[in-house]
Amino acid sequence: MQKPFTSVTAREYHARPFSLSGITVTTKIVLAYSGGLDTSVICRWLQTTYQAEVITFTADIGQGEEVESARAKAEAMGVKEIFIEDLQEPFVRDFVFPMFRANSLYEGEYLLGTSIARPLITQRLVEIAESTGADAIAHGATGKGNDQVRFELGAYALNPDIQVIAPWREWDLNSREALMNFCEKHQIPVDYQRGEKSPYSMDANLLHISYEGGGLEDPWNEADDAMWRWTVAPEAAPDEARTIELEYAAGDPMALDGQVMSPAVLLRELNELGGAHGVGRSDIVENRYVGMKSRGCYETPGGTILLKAHRAMESLTLDREVAHLKDELMPRYAVLIYNGYWWSPERKVLQALIDESQKPVNGTVRLRLYKGAVSVLGRKSPEDSLYDEDVVTFEDDGGAYHQGDAAGFIRLNALRLRIGARRERKKRAD
Questions:
Q1: What percent of the chain has pLDDT over 70?
Q2: Which of 88, 99, 136, 325 could join 163 in a cystine, given CB atoms 3.0 to 4.6 angstroms apart?
Q3: Is the entire prediction scored with pTM above 0.85?
Q4: For the chain, what is the radius of gyration of the CA atoms?
Q5: What are the residue numbers of the active site?
Q6: Which domains, ranges and CATH numbers included, belong to the chain?
């Protein structure tokens, strides 16, 4: 006989990780932990609500803040197992660079700086959970944003039986005052001052920094000049341009101005160069996966340079139809990353195609950085270039191209157009 359905609260449901073999009790939870107000409150809330051991994981992906300080904060919360990892190199090498092989732009503007960081953080959360015997992970994303989707889709793709806890969707601590009262009640040590609220919600990593909230919530308001942290205003950038050269191997940049660099070091250098010349600011209204429009401002100086340089390198080395196919697939690929499907089979299939296309993308691009703009000055690929000067020259090509052949080419391609035009003429005549 079928058992009667029993109603449970969301908290009761989430306290028991789903398993194909049955229901078990959560005993260990791995928390994505920054050491700030929100995640400190989440840490204590998990401890008291679930009566579970909390393990913290803090990732350094180039956000520009000292992450080691999270250790002392976690210890003060009674956390016994603390993971703090420098993931800057794998972040750029295994996530940012593969994404740039596709020339990815979401809705034609967004370089996916936040989106591409979530798969790596999720991967490590799941791996740490497996290595420590934890049966759940937790994140601090809100119920209105994209990050909750990215974390959770990724987690389930990597471990279908993992339990994901999202406190912002469960608790009633929905104001700054409520969070502070919780801290006082539970003696949570946080570096937080009562006073004027910070105007922006920011997220930073080695690829970008984003700004949302505050005055930006009105899309008619211009962003405050004081908001920008990585870039100077284009009009205030140096009057003297900076010329750089980027060398590519199989679609990835590997040297700047002749100096071979690791992925993270190279991106950091481009961020500094681009930021000094006002490169990489954007102000976007984007469509979130959860259904609402959101206005955000982004600084992506190094990424803006990389996109321009990579397309220039491909223009010289990629077959025309391969290049056009990549351009057709890119919006789908970008949407997959934005919506949290990095670990999906379709993204992996697309990545395999993209990576195969990059084998001949080798050579050097010369660019100029000047007052917010990135201009291509030259490109070369001694072994993989498809550019043939003998064919394209306006001078005598020595028979490399027979111009008369174009007549038949045009007649064949015009045939359907002429037939269609005759049909329309006949209809009008009748």
A1: 92
A2: 136
A3: yes
A4: 26
A5: 38, 118, 147, 201
A6: 10-101+114-186 (3.40.50.620), 201-318+360-379 (3.90.1260.10)
